[in-house]
Write a structure and sequence with these properties.
Nuclear Transport Factor 2, Chain: A; 2 domains; 5-stranded antiparallel sheet; two-stranded antiparallel sheet; 39% helix
Length: 227
């Protein structure tokens, strides 16, 4: 009789353990939109951690390595000259790293705006642009509409211009992307766009950074379309 109760206890504990394992797997296996990583949009080779959003130093490049990886020489002369001005106030500036960061920022900002995810936008935009984005998100949500955006691909991203004002460096990029954009009402019906159409989209974004600040990240200070 005692052995029977002991066997029953073992079976019961095994069932409880299996249930807990399944619960843990279901929780740990989930990802939410708030787990997007912030891009490493720094002018040097420092990295931003996704967990605590701290700047972590990595071994610095030698001067020769930096010169070999920078593609400034491939840019038109006027732009190369402007970037040289930026490099005078920020010797760590590297155009290839900048473009890579701009691409990552573009994807997060476009997706964050479509999702209405203000938290993902806050650290990438200056106050004025952030407020404009939030206002547009609030207006969209007030009407009951939702925006679905799929970035099919970024075909090209180029530096258009660069300048320095005081201690602040400004760099403007032109982004050519292919996107699917659809706006739906609260019933799910399409009110704008075509979910079956991939459309070319051209954006011109300007990023800025205070070169005297310890923060190595650039922020989006202006967005516009070609005239």
């Amino acid at each position: 009789m005692g052995d029977g109760f002991q066997a029953l206890d073992i079976i019961l504990f095994a069932m409880i353990a299996a249930f807990l394992v399944l619960r843990l797997r279901s929780v740990l296996g989930k990802r939410t939109g708030h787990q997007r990583r912030r891009p490493n949009f720094a002018s040097d080779n420092r990295k931003i951690t996704s967990k605590e959003d701290k700047v972590v130093e990595t071994p610095p490049k030698s001067k020769m390595e930096s010169e070999n990886t920078d593609n400034t020489n491939d840019l038109p002369d006027p732009i190369a000259a402007c970037l040289s001005t930026v490099r005078e106030v920020d010797p760590t500036f590297d155009s290839e790293n900048f473009i890579s960061g701009a691409k990552a920022a573009f994807e997060i900002v476009v997706n964050g705006f479509a999702d209405g995810d203000k938290d993902s936008l806050r650290g990438l935009l200056n106050n004025e642009v952030f407020e404009n984005f939030c206002e547009a998100i609030d207006e969209r949500e007030a009407t009951g509409n939702s925006l679905e955006t799929v970035i099919v691909g970024i075909k090209e991203i180029n530096i258009l211009e660069a300048r320095v004002g005081g201690s602040t460096a400004f760099v403007t990029v032109k982004v050519l992307s292919e996107q699917v954009n659809v706006t739906r009402d609260n019933s799910g019906a399409v009110v704008d766009g075509d979910e079956n159409r991939v459309a070319p989209v051209t954006d011109i974004w300007t990023f800025a950074r205070n070169t005297r600040a310890h923060d190595p990240n650039w922020t989006l200070v202006e967005t516009r379309s070609p005239e």
